[in-house]
Structures are given as C-alpha cells and as structure tokens.
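pls design
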C-alpha cells in the first residue's frame, strides 16, 4: 500500500446507522465493475444474444438483481456509486458533500485502486484511490485515447501499442486492472478495485476481428430482436410474463419500413456495439482468471452493473469509415437502444424504467448465501453500494474529510439480500436528471419525462409502464409529487429551475436523424 503522508487531510468517521454486521469471515476483496451505456438486456444472462460467457458464468454461480437502479446518466451514476448519496446531495461532480468508497475503506486497511473512466472533478487520486489509470473524460476514442489519460495522478501519453498489441481502451483497462491487483496483493491487506469500462459508450469502435464475429447477426432488425430477448428473459425467470413487452415508440421506425441500404447500415452499427460488449466481457474474464491464479478469487466480492440504460443519441460522424478506423465516430440511436432496454420504455437520461434499470451481478463464493444462479426481485440502487462495502469491509462511514462535511449515508446495505434474507426496503427511491424525474414508493412509481405530466404506475403488475394510473389515483399522484419536491429541495439540494412544476401533457420525444449525407465521400 501507498504510505499516507502527514499532508493528507484528517478524516473523522461516523458508523452508519444502516450497517448490518457481516459474518465473521475474512474481509473480502472487492471488485466493482461498471459498464457504460449498457442496456438492461445487453448481457447474455439478461436476455441478450451477445456472447458474454464470463459474466454469464459469474451470474450462474452468483446472484442477479432484476430490479436494480442507476440514475440514468453517466456522471450522476458515478457520484451515487462512489458516495452512497444522490448526485446533487453529494455535491455532484465536485463531491463536496460526499466521501468515496475508497475514502471509507482505505482507513479500514484496504488497498484502493481504480481503472477506467472518471468523468468527475479532479482525479481519483484526490479522492482516496491510491492507484489510478484511465481517462478523466466522459468519452474517449477507443484507439487513440485523448489528453486526459492519467497514471497515478500524472499525465499518461497514449501509445500506439500496449503490452504487445495495438492500443484499445477496453484491453488497456483489463491490463491495468490486472497490474494493480498484482501490486495490491503484495501486502496482506484486502483490496478495493473499481473498474469503470468506457465500453460500450459511443463512439462505436472495435477491432476488426471482433466486429466481423457478429457479421449478419442483426440483419433481422430491432423489432424481432426485442421479441427474442424478451422471450429469453421470461424463459430464464428473470422477468414475469405478466410484464408485457413495451411497444415500439412512434419515433422508432418499423424495421421493414427501412430501405435495404438503411437496414445494412443499422445492422452494421449494432454489430459494432455487440463487439464492444463482447470485448468488455473478455477483459472481465481475464481479470477473473488472474484472480483465480493468484488464489484471490474465492473471497472476492464481484459486483457488475451499468451507469444507465442504452443511449438514444444519434451523433454519428464519419459514417463512411469502418468502425476499426480511429477516425470513425459511429453511434447508434433510439432504435437499437429500445432493444437494449428490453422490455422497458425510454432510455439513458429518462427516469422511466428503460433509463434507470441496470443489470447487477453479484458473485462471492466465500460470502454469498443465496443459491447459485438465483434472481432477486428486491429493489436496490447504486446508493446502496457504499453501505454494502462498509458492512463487508467492517469500515466506518466518514462524517468529515478535510473541509468536506459529509452528508448522512442515503443508501442501505445489500448484505441481507446477499445472505438470502428479505431486506427492509427503502421508504422511497428518488430519481432526477435534468428535467426527468421519478419517485418509487413500494410498488408505486411516479415519473415525468422532460417536464411532461406525471405518470403513475403499479410496478408489481406493470413494470413496463404501459398502464398509466394517474387519473385513477390523483390523490396518490399529489402526495408522491409533494414528496418528490421535498426530497429534491431538502435532500438533493435542487434550486431554481430544477424545481419547475411539471406540465399537463406528456412530451413527445424524437431522437432519429438522417446521416446518409455522410456517404457522399467514401473512405
């Protein structure tokens, strides 16, 4: 471990009231992995056709959550994951009122390291991580990187090759994850490793051989793909059949309505997305196999999640270039994102289930007490990870770090669920990003998109949000709306326009753009 110098701010601690003492096992290593813009249905064990054998094996021997939530956006999810607080409650990207999991676990004797995307203020090494390699930006070119790459706080120039092969960010994240494990296991201390993959966030770029593996897989289009994914979700027991597949929205065209040329383009970019997820899974596998070889696997708590639902933003540049050309900049839009979030509605940014629903795979041979391959429908949220790690790491929650006064922990430990118990649920879960809002109380969910009117759903019966009950239960809408505004103002510290009342109509959404003019010159 790195030595803590006298210049490091004094940290005072407060034991969290949510902490449930773990069994007297050896404290586990913790490997927390977050994918970027990965939809609920983009892993094999969540219904996908994409080949993700390593994550699927972790799920088959571990526990899957069917109702785990993120915040529907990159930076806000990272804030909640790191601090156990809602985003603005923690001070947003500045973390001015939040402590990170590294700052909580390091004083308890954990070695701490991070690799990958940061997307917050300053650097991970300013917030308790003793080791860091990755990029500070919210997105990067996968082949050439950008100027924000850092190694342990210092500028890191992206090379043409790394460890004997052409540089590719996902592979490099795997390389440094393994390197940091080797460095941290030289001591007897347990370790925390946070791996923040940038994949499969745009630009859609992948090595040629990885893309060609999926050639022809998506020629059938998004309408058929969603039906097949949903069928697998039901067959596997992940979701109940009573939650009907949400229909294709008006802003997504029917696959059969596209020209042959447009179908080819659409299929091609989904092939690249699949390749990026596949390569991510390969690097998870490399890390797993390395931990096994080092004798660290059995008492390592693995958690894998995503920061938001699939992304609907069409921002393609260089459509005429191949996706293994570093100058290319492909994205996909709401059409494939709708399939990525099967069976739910809407996308990244929105607080409907398609935006906030994440896979969560938990694997921990020495500590998980659920039956192998189990699925839990108990709701959880990224804010719960801090409390969980404090539990298993036997750490204390900081109340002050330097001049940062830390807000009380918002999350609740997932440890009871991992021990096969029924956890006392949150009284409510609050969601906010920009002009999208939601509140969940028990099985009831209130949600608004882009300041459109409030919609009300009974998630026990209708988690795909097809039967709006707001007119049937106006008193519930009023009470839940009042609670959303109370939490927004008193807990999340929102002000001004962020507290604007919703409108009286549902807002129409449209994400599709014509990019065919980019084909005028071919590469």
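designed seq:
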């Amino acid at each position: 471990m790195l030595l803590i110098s006298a210049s490091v701010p004094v940290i005072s601690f407060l034991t969290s009231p949510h902490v449930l003492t773990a069994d007297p096992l050896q404290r586990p290593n913790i490997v927390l992995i977050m994918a970027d813009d990965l939809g609920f249905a983009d892993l094999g064990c969540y219904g996908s056709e994409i080949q993700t054998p390593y994550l699927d094996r972790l799920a088959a021997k571990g526990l899957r959550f069917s109702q785990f939530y993120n915040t529907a956006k990159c930076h806000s999810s990272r804030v909640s994951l790191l601090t156990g607080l809602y985003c603005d409650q923690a001070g947003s990207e500045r973390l001015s009122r939040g402590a990170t999991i590294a700052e909580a676990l390091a004083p308890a004797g954990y070695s701490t390291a991070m690799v990958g995307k940061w997307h917050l203020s300053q650097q991970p090494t300013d917030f308790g991580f003793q080791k860091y390699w990755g990029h500070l930006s919210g997105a990067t070119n996968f082949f050439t990187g950008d100027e924000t790459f850092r190694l342990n706080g210092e500028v890191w120039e992206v090379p043409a090759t790394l460890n004997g092969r052409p540089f590719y960010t996902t592979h490099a994240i795997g390389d440094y994850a393994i390197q940091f494990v080797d460095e941290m296991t030289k001591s007897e201390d347990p370790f925390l490793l946070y791996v923040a993959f940038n994949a499969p966030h745009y630009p859609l770029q992948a090595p040629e051989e990885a893309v060609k593996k999926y050639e022809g897989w998506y020629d059938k289009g998004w309408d058929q793909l969603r039906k097949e994914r949903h069928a697998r979700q039901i067959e596997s027991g992940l979701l109940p059949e009573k939650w009907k597949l949400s229909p294709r929205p008006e802003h997504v065209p029917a696959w059969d309505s596209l020209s042959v040329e447009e179908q080819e383009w659409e299929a091609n970019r989904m092939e690249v997305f699949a390749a990026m997820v596949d390569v991510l899974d390969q690097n998870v596998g490399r890390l797993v196999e390395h931990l096994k070889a080092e004798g660290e696997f059995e008492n390592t708590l693995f958690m894998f999640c995503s920061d938001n639902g699939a992304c609907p933003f069409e921002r393609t540049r260089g459509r005429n270039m191949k996706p293994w050309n570093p100058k290319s900049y492909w994205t996909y839009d709401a059409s494939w994102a709708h399939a990525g979030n099967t069976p739910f509605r809407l996308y990244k940014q929105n607080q409907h289930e398609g935006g906030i629903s994440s896979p969560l795979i938990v694997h921990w041979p020495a500590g998980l007490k659920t039956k192998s391959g189990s699925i839990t429908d108990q709701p959880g949220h990224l804010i719960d990870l801090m409390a969980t790690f404090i539990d298993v790491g036997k750490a204390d929650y900081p109340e002050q770090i330097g001049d940062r006064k830390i807000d009380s922990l918002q999350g609740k430990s997932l440890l009871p669920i991992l021990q096969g118990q029924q956890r006392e649920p949150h009284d409510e879960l609050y969601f906010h990003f920009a002009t999208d809002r939601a509140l969940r109380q028990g099985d009831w969910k209130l949600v608004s998109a882009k300041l459109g009117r409030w919609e009300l759903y009974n998630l026990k019966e209708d988690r795909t949000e097809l039967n709006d009950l707001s007119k049937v239960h106006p008193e519930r809408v009023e009470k839940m709306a009042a609670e959303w505004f109370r939490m927004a103002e008193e807990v999340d510290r929102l002000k001004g326009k962020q507290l604007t009342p919703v409108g009286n109509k549902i807002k129409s959404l449209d994400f599709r753009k014509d990019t065919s003019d980019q084909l005028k010159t071919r590469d």
